[in-house]
């Protein structure tokens, strides 16, 4: 037995001063790149300069024909849905558990997000998705929660069999892959966030990927009126005449954010390799802690390790509540152990319960959801404790302290009952 629990007056395991995790990593080269950009251009209305560099870099990294940057991941999702011809009254099947922005832009298109049960890992369950397909279904949406790829092959098969588009929200999963194929390349299009903590970060920003020319022109029309539409949409295309106004929205990335993201893009594979090492260490050691379970990653699947998720089993610790377990971890100084807050089952959110108050024209075939509608997703969310995954070798010492904190709380669980 170790020393008494910090929550009960003992010494904490983790003594390093916080924060223990910060993102994105910034060094002198990053600073130089952003400062250089500051002195060259802070507004780029065409596909040129750092915006072109970043989009070219993304196209090369993902192996796709088109990458279109946006002001945020939410904007990328909005533009992607519009470009995928999601129209008023259409249904889009989305995972019941994701960050709400995966689906919320659908309300602005007067389309209906149809929530779908997930697998225990939190990713959309392809068999459940198939059951939800109706003549109104336009698309099937996959998030790759915490950077663990969804079952992309099964989802592509379901989408293909029913003639609906597969779309992806890759915001947790930049660089993750399934049998060598990168997340974001499995369907008609994908949207990614470049927000602060995401595996690839520009601080703020996002992008859409697609191989389809028409979808590319539609993203431009939706999000990049005037210059980009005028120079990138062929004169013969039916959308070309709308170039000056587009759809009326301008959702451009800031050049300084693009410079930061471009700097990070060159380091992404290094970050991912480092995270994989530390994730393996954490998984190996936390798997031995009673009360915690680490879900294995299937053969051939490479995660981005945006987060390492642990399933908490109260029944293995005399019924100790996850709240109390988590509180004891924090008291041990392991403050990065986190319970997902805003990334929660969507039917618990007022927007998804009563969209009509904010969107009076919302189609009436909105389904009614209640607690218990998605037992697997709800159970997984309620029992998840997650940890950001460090990427540097020198972070192993801290990872090791986090493991010891978890083992200590588990060891002493009886004192918390
Ligand atoms: C962060 C995130 C978004 C939204 O991206 P922003 O850049 O913050 O607008 C959408 N979906 C998922 C899964 C996210 O994690």
Automatic annotation (TrEMBL):
Its cofactor is pyridoxal 5'-phosphate. SUPFAM superfamilies: PLP-dependent transferases. Keywords: Aminotransferase, Pyridoxal phosphate, Transferase. The keyword Transferase applies. It comes from the Bacteria. InterPro entries: DegT/StrS_aminotransferase (IPR000653), PyrdxlP-dep_Trfase (IPR015424), PyrdxlP-dep_Trfase_major (IPR015421), PyrdxlP-dep_Trfase_small (IPR015422). One of its GO terms (molecular function) is transaminase activity. Belongs to the DegT/DnrJ/EryC1 family. L-glutamine:2-deoxy-scyllo-inosose/scyllo-inosose aminotransferase subfamily. This is Aminotransferase class I/II-fold pyridoxal phosphate-dependent enzyme.
